[in-house]
Design a protein that fits this description.
The complex is a heterodimer of chains A (341) and B (187).
Chain A (H helix, E strand, L loop, with lengths): L2 H24 L16 H11 L4 H14 L5 H11 L4 H14 L3 H5 L11 E2 L24 E2 L20 H9 L3 H11 L5 H8 L3 H12 L4 E6 L2 E6 L5 H4 L11 H15 L9 H21 L16 H17 L2
Parallel strand pairs in A: 1-2
Antiparallel strand pairs in A: 3-4
Helix pairs in contact in A: 1-14, 2-12, 7-8, 9-10, 12-13, 13-14
Chain B lengths: L19 H14 L5 E6 L1 H6 L10 E7 L5 E2 L6 H14 L6 E2 L9 H4 L10 E6 L2 E5 L8 H14 L3 H13 L10
Helix pairs in contact in B: 1-3
Classes of the chains: A mainly alpha (341), B alpha/beta (187).
Chain lengths: 341, 187
Amino acid sequence: MGTLFLEFRGYILDRLLDLLWRQWSALGVPGRTTIEERRVVDPESLLLISLTVGRYDARLFDEILDWLVVNGAFLNVQRLRNLMKRFGFESQAQLSSVSELLMKKSNDPLKWKRLATPRSPRNPEPLFFLKSGKPIPTPDEKAPEFSPYGLLRGPIKLRGHAQPFPTKGMPSLLLRLRALLGVNARCELFCLLAAAEEIHPSDVARQTGYSPRTMQNTLAEMARSGVVQMRSGNRDKWYSLNSGVLDYLLKPEGSTTPWINWAPLFRALEMLWIRVIDPKWQNLDPLTLASELRRLGKEIRPLLADAGWGRQLEDDSSFRGVEYSAVFIRNIEGILDQLNQ
Amino acid sequence: MSFIVRLMRPLNDIRLPGNFDESLQLLNGRLALDRAPRYNLVVCGGTALNATGLISRTTKDVDIVALMDDSEVLLDPAPLPQPLVDAAIVVAENLGLANDWLNNGPSSDDGGLFRLGLPEGIAKRLVWKTYGENLRVGFIHHMLAPTDDELLEAARWTKTHDPSDGFLQGLKWFLEESGYGHLVPRI
C-alpha cells in the first residue's frame, strides 16, 4: 500500500472524527472539540454516519449511546428508517444493536423496537477497530445487544455523563423544535424555511427523507397558520416564512439559518470511508487505485451535489489514468477541511 | 498476409508502444477487482507486431483473434465474455481510449479467422505476456525471415480463407516479388 494512500486514509479518519465529535459535543456529548459547531445538526444523519465511522473511536461510540439514553426521545425513528433506506447507509447492524440497547434503557421501548431489524446470523466481527485498522480484541463476555447482529464488543457500561441537548444555539435547533412541536416533519420544514428564501415540496422531500406527499400536505397545512406563506407559480407551489414571526427562534443572528443537507453529504463520506478501508483496496497498483477512486468519485458526486457540494469534486474526465488520484485526494481533503472550518 | 513464428524470448520485459501496456495492466486490475475469471487472450495485428518488437507503429485497438483456456485449447472469442467487455469499457473511460479498443474484430463472425480456422499449431507458437493473476496475452506476429516450409504452410493457410483465383494470382505475385518464386509451384 502506498504511503500517500495510507496518509490519505488517516487524514480522512481524523477529519471525520473531528467533525463527529464537534457535532455531538454541540448536542451535549461531553468530549473533545476545538472548533465550535455553528450549523444546524441533523441528528439522524449524524447518528447513521457515526455508527460507521465511530467504530474507529470506541469512546465516541459509547458517548453517543450515553447521549441517546438521555435524548433519544427526540430522535425521529421513522426518519432514521427513511434515510437508511433512501441513501443506503451501511450501519444497519449497529443501528439495530443500538435499538436493542435503547429498548432496555429508554422510556419508550416500542419506539426503538421499530428500528431493530430481524437478528441476522452473519460472520461475527469485532465492533471496534484501532485507527490503524486493526480490530480491538473483545473480552470473553460480550454485549448481548450487539452479538445477535454479528458485532462483538464487551458489555456496555454507560458513564451517565451525557447532557440534555442545549436549549440555545443553532446546532440543536432541530431538536429544540421537536421539543416544542413534537417529533414530526414540521421541525425540518421550519429549519429549511429559515434557511432559504422559499422552498419547494419536492426539494424538501429530497433533503429531509420524508415523502413528497407528506411534505406537500404538511406545508399546505402550515400555510394556513399565517406563519408560512404560499406562492403559486405555473403548476408549482413555493413556500416561505412570513418575516418576523419566528425570527427570534429560527434566525437569532438575523441571517438565514445555516442548514446543510447533511444526509447525502454524510452518506458520501461514509462511502468514502468504507471504500478506503476495504481490504481489496489496500494492495492496488497505482493505476487500478486511480480507477477505483474515479469510480468512487462517480458514485459520490451526485450525493455531494444534493448537499450543495458537487463542485468540490472535479470532473474526472479531464484527467487520464493515474493523474486522477492526486486530484481526487486534493478534492476530498478540501471538502473535509471546509467541513471542519 | 500473416506469418507465424515462435519467439524464443519472453515478453514480460517488453513494453507495448502507445497506451496498450498500461491498458492491459489496468484491464487485469479491473478484472481482479470484479472477481472475474482469468482470461488468456490471443492477439494479432498491430498490437502483436509492436509487442514482439518487429515494428513500431501507432495502433488504435487490440484485436483478439481467440481466447485460450488454461489447458491451451483455443476458444471462439465471439461473443467476448461480458466481464471482459465490462472491464474494457472502464479502462477505455479511464485512459481516454475508444470503447472498442479491445475487440474481437478479426474473429467476430462466421467469416472471421477463428471460425474459418486458425493455422495449425498456432497455440504453440504464441508469445505470452502475463499482466497479472487475471490476464495473459499471447501475441501472434509476423515473421521476417521464414523458412520455405513455414512460408508454404502460411501461404496454403491463406488460400483456405480466400479460394478465389484472383487471390491465388496475387499470392503468386507476392512470392515471386519477395524472392520466393521457387515456392510458387508448391502452393
